[in-house]
Amino acid sequence: MSPRIVTADEVAPLIADGATVASDGFTMMSVADEIYLAVEQSFLSTGHPRGLTWVHAAGQSNRVDGLARLAHAGLLKRVVGPHWGLNPPMAELLGGDEVECVCLPQGQISTLYRTIAAGRPGQLSTVGLGTFVDPRLDGGRLNERTRRCVAATEYVDVVELDGEEYLRYKPFPIDVAIVRGTRMDAGGNMSQDDDPTILDSLAIAQAVHNNGGVVIAQVKEIVRPGGIPARLVNVPGVLVGVAMVCSDTSRFHRQSHSFPQVDMSLITGHATAEEITAALDKGDLSEQRASIGARGVGLVEAGDVVNLGTGIPGDTVGVALARSGLIADVHLTIESGTYGGVPLGGVDFGCAYHPDALIPHPCQFDFYNGGGCDITFMGVGQVDRWGNVNVSALGGRAIGCGGFMDIVDGAKKVCFLMSAASRHPKWVEQVDQLTFSGAAALHREQKVYLCTEYYTLELAADGWAVTDADEGAEARSALAAAGLPG
């Protein structure tokens, strides 16, 4: 049976008031932006659809487009997602207590789609234990409105198995799927061959189809039956109920934010170590900032699988690896499922020039959760003397944990990178929100480090210990600000 073909104006009426909607995307990759715009315009002009619960497994915005279009109280009743750092309108809406907000780890949402599709009773994980996701603390609820309306155990509870504690992430029904493809044939079979990532479209479509809901796909074109090789079909036609051909692909169907048209370098490799080094080390990074990454790279060993978080890690670690000559001896990975190449940052975080491999989003988190990452580099919002870190709630905004919790939970080494000279004080007596538990990491027998431009710390049972520090007044002052001996 062929999918129903609709225009943008016909999409919003397909979404009932009060529905639970799940959408695919990562920054602006695989984001069905014209559908988001159609939903927003319908709400602003008619008041419908309204009261939606919107679920997403990664940030889907460039600060203006994508999910930022949906940041309207009334349109949304609840948001269930991992991250809004590149979505200021949504971060302010959620942080301002105008819409319910449940923050769950990115990898757990991504893999939960498969759990929901399969009808399993939930998934067990150590990810989130001892953090704000743990229902004994907050159950992922990010604001007071949510705490009033949502039970701490609605999305996650604690179970014990063979004497060990786990969080059980609970399944829930999803009514509408919004996915995006490059091409679709007349039978509804959809490819994503232009996309630089392989995300959650299949699992979302399966979860919604098996719940009796509607799968809506935005595509660039519809081709003849058999016009897409079977191995290139990401979502089979049996799952797709409605299709919309994008009216302006450079505006609403970007390959990534900075790539309105298809750039083959985002989906083809291979780059040599020399090419990667030249691309990374362009000389536009301040020496002070570069020195932070250089300290962290001192912890890397040849053969390591390395994960790069956004911010200082993404800006500095690749450069430091290139300058150290280690770039050819390690495996750079990004949570989106990207391996190798030259990772991009900011609103293009998640893709890379000339990647070696692209694997599906949930498969990447399976790999991370299972201990496949040797060392991860993450940023810091707040940190205390016991190694607790907050990256998820800062300055009254709901930023979210993203893939942070999943990655740090399984990594053999965790290295936090921050500037000791930041205009926002990093060291606090108690973090505002517990995104990383130092005690839980030590229980897992992980090695945990913190590097700045002046010093390197290692976490021990009695708090941070200085393992390396520069000489001079600036370094002593930075250590004193952290409450550490100079």
Structural class: alpha/beta
The count of strands amounts to: 28
Instruction: Please give the radius of gyration in angstroms.
Output: 22 Å
Helix content: 10-25%
The coarse silhouette is globular
Total helical elements: 13
Low-confidence stretches are none
Defining traits:
486 residues; alpha/beta; ten-stranded mixed sheet; nine-stranded mixed sheet; 13 helices; 28 strands
Report on the architecture of this protein:
The chain has 486 residues and is an alpha/beta fold. Helix content is 24%, strand content 24%. It contains 13 helices and 28 strands. The strands form 6 sheets. Strands 1, 2, 3, 4, 5, 9, 10, 11, 12 and 13 form a 10-stranded mixed beta sheet that branches. The chain has a 9-stranded mixed beta sheet with strand order 19-16-15-14-20-25-26-27-28, sandwiched between helices. Helix 8 packs across helix 9 (312-324). The longest helix has 14 residues, at 33-46. It is globular and about 70 Å long. The termini are far apart. The mean pLDDT is 95.
Write the layout of secondary structure elements.
Layout: E1 4-6, E2 20-23, H1 33-46, E3 52-56, E4 76-81, H2 88-95, E5 100-103, H3 106-118, E6 123-125, H4 144-149, E7 156-161, E8 164-169, E9 176-185, E10 190-191, H5 201-210, E11 214-223, E12 233-235, E13 242-245, H6 249-252, H7 273-280, H8 287-297, E14 305-308, H9 312-324, E15 331-334, E16 338-339, E17 342-343, E18 352-353, E19 357-358, H10 361-369, E20 375-378, E21 382-383, E22 389-390, E23 393-394, E24 397-398, H11 404-410, E25 413-417, H12 438-443, E26 447-451, E27 455-460, E28 463-469, H13 473-481
Parallel strand pairs: 1-13, 2-3, 2-9, 3-4, 4-5, 9-11, 11-13, 14-15, 14-20, 20-25, 25-26
Antiparallel strand pairs: 6-8, 7-8, 9-10, 10-12, 15-16, 16-19, 17-18, 21-22, 23-24, 26-27, 27-28
